[in-house]
Design a protein that fits this description.
Helix content is 35%, strand content 32%. It has 234 residues and is an alpha/beta fold. The strands form four sheets. The protein has a five-stranded parallel sheet with strand order 2-1-3-4-5, with helices on both faces. A hairpin with a 4-residue loop joins strand 14 (204-207) and strand 15. The protein is elongated and about 60 Å long. GO terms for molecular function: DNA binding. It comes from Amedibacillus hominis.
């Protein structure tokens, strides 16, 4: 994993140490790049996984740099660091994935970085799918929901772009494959991506595309709890 820290003040030590401590305990190698100039940051964006940057910059506004990073590498996880909570709104306007308020102790930072890793797996993870002579990657983040169809026995992946992919796997396969990611069972045959839940109506889930998905009594309590917990993390 490649992590970039961008800070114009060259104030890297505390954050860098927190990151190193986290990955040392995980026994995972991590390449940490330190930059203090915008042009140096641009050279590192394309193959980076996570970027930490100060929300209050002099060379360029946080909104402009967040937009630039998003366009150059839309799969990157962007995290703003600041000493002031009132800068949070700027972060949301700049394609921010996470917002950290200084100072962070190691325990707080570990919890935040743990979630960042999950976000990274979700946004960059996926599987290869072959259709005809074309093989392409289907990203987990693009799946609205997965539905098991009994006849023929297949699972259908409903994607954000409206496409439906049929695969010869049971729903249990996807439950194991997506374990730890924001998917939750709403019905005995349906697995829903919580990122696309817009609301509820009686015994239905309303997705962001206005599609209604059944929410059965047996799964309702767990689904509502997991959805609330997920929304509170956002």
């Amino acid at each position: 994993m490649k992590i970039v820290i961008y800070n114009e003040k060259d104030d890297f030590n505390n954050l860098k140490q927190n990151i190193e401590n986290f990955f040392m305990r995980k026994n995972v190698k991590c390449n940490i790049i330190l930059v203090s100039k915008t042009e140096d940051l641009c050279n590192e964006i394309y193959d980076s996984d996570i970027i930490f940057l100060d929300i209050k910059l002099k060379q360029i506004s946080s909104i402009d740099i967040g937009t630039m990073i998003h366009h150059l590498n839309h799969n990157i996880i962007l995290t703003f660091i600041t000493n002031y909570s009132h800068y949070k709104i700027d972060g949301y306007q700049a394609y921010m994935d996470r917002y950290l308020l200084n100072p962070l102790n190691q325990n707080q930072f570990d919890m935040e970085l743990e979630q960042l890793i999950k976000d990274f797996i979700f946004f960059s993870g996926g599987f290869l799918y072959t259709e005809g002579n074309i093989t392409k990657k289907i990203y987990y983040k693009d799946i609205l929901y997965i539905e098991f169809i009994s006849s023929p026995r297949k699972t259908q992946l409903h994607l954000e772009n409206g496409k439906i992919i049929s695969m010869n796997y049971p729903l249990k396969y996807w439950m194991n494959e997506l374990k730890g990611l924001p998917f939750c069972q709403s019905y005995k045959s349906i697995l829903v991506d919580l990122n696309y839940v817009a609301g509820f109506q009686e015994n239905d889930i309303i997705l962001t595309n206005n599609e209604h998905i059944p929410l059965s009594r047996g799964y309702k309590k767990t689904f509502m709890q997991e959805n609330l917990a997920h929304q509170q993390k956002q």
